[in-house]
Specification:
The chain is α+β, with helices and mostly antiparallel strands. The protein has 2 domains: 7-192, PAS domain (Beta-Lactamase, 2-Layer Sandwich); 200-255, Arc Repressor Mutant, subunit A, CATH 1.10.10. The protein has helices at 7-12, 31-43, 64-67, 72-78, 81-86, 89-106, 113-117, 200-210, 215-222, 226-239, 245-255; strands spanning 46-51, 56-60, 120-128, 134-146, 152-161, 168-173, 181-184, 189-192. Strands 2-1-5-4-3-6-7-8 form an 8-stranded antiparallel sheet, sandwiched between helices. Strand 6 and strand 7 form a beta hairpin. The two termini are 34 Å apart.
């Protein structure tokens, strides 16, 4: 990005942060970690909380996907320097660009407060495990709490396996969860994001596929031919822009 600033300073440079009294943190000492850890286990996702005022991670779940072989405490202590450890230079540069764009968009002076509070940002990038493996993850970020002066304080992040093929794939929503937008890295602009919705029959067939039914079993259950079931399967993958049915199911649950 043409700067020699430490990675943490680069991530937080564009963020309009507010101020918080020290006592305000005490209410989260027990409640927030307990709630987030339960969410992580129930949803089978890595979860962590960013503190934009202290410029670090307030809490990190024990779920192994995001940790890359480190302990939750180690990741929490590294904060944003963690990305420099587990991501390629190219993906770090991409994350910095997304971060700068995102906070320009989320600036509460430009958006109504309710839209800022309900915004959600999703993007994909690779993380490198200590054991040498590489995993493409879908990272979602949403404001958790604003400061009294309506600036960013805490953000909730979730991490799960991505259904895409490579880094990028920026999708975000503001106040209306039915409207999705994407970021174009070439033009540096936002565009409407459209993924074809499944028909009722396709949703029904996808539910059978998720439960492990093959085409002949689906055909028997729905009184259709195996060829028709197979055609529906192909249409589902095409609409959800997925390379296989596992990715299709993940993509569908992620978007709709």
């Amino acid at each position: 990005m043409g700067t020699n600033l430490p990675i943490t300073e680069q991530f937080f440079e564009p963020v309009p942060c507010g101020t918080i009294e020290k006592e305000a943190y005490s209410q989260f000492d027990l409640t927030l970690p307990l709630l987030c850890e339960k969410m992580s286990r129930m949803c089978n996702k890595s979860i962590y909380v960013i503190d934009y005022i202290k410029r670090g991670f307030l809490w990190v779940s024990e779920h192994p996907l995001f940790l890359c072989g480190y302990s939750a405490q180690e990741v929490q202590e590294m904060g944003y320097n963690f990305y420099e450890t587990v991501c390629s230079h190219e993906d770090v540069e991409m994350l910095l660009e997304i971060n700068k764009f995102g906070w320009a968009l989320f600036d509460s002076e430009k958006l109504p407060i309710w839209e800022t509070k309900n915004a959600c940002f999703s993007y994909d990038f690779f993380i490198h495990h200590k054991n040498g493996s590489r995993t493409l993850i879908e990272h979602k970020l949403s404001p958790l709490l604003l400061s009294p002066d309506n600036k960013m304080w805490l953000a909730l992040c979730t991490v799960n396996l991505s259904s895409k093929k490579g880094s990028g794939n920026v999708v975000f929503t503001l106040g209306n969860v039915e409207e999705h937008y994407t970021y174009n890295f070439n033009t540096k602009t936002i565009e409407p994001y459209s993924t074809e919705k499944l028909s009722k029959r396709e949703e029904e067939i996808l539910s059978f596929i998720i439960r492990g039914y093959d085409d002949s079993q689906i055909a028997e259950e729905l009184n259709i031919s195996s060829l028709t079931a197979k055609t529906h399967r192909k249409n589902i993958m095409h609409k959800l822009k997925a390379s296989n049915m596992i990715n299709a199911a993940t993509a569908y649950q992620s978007i709709f």
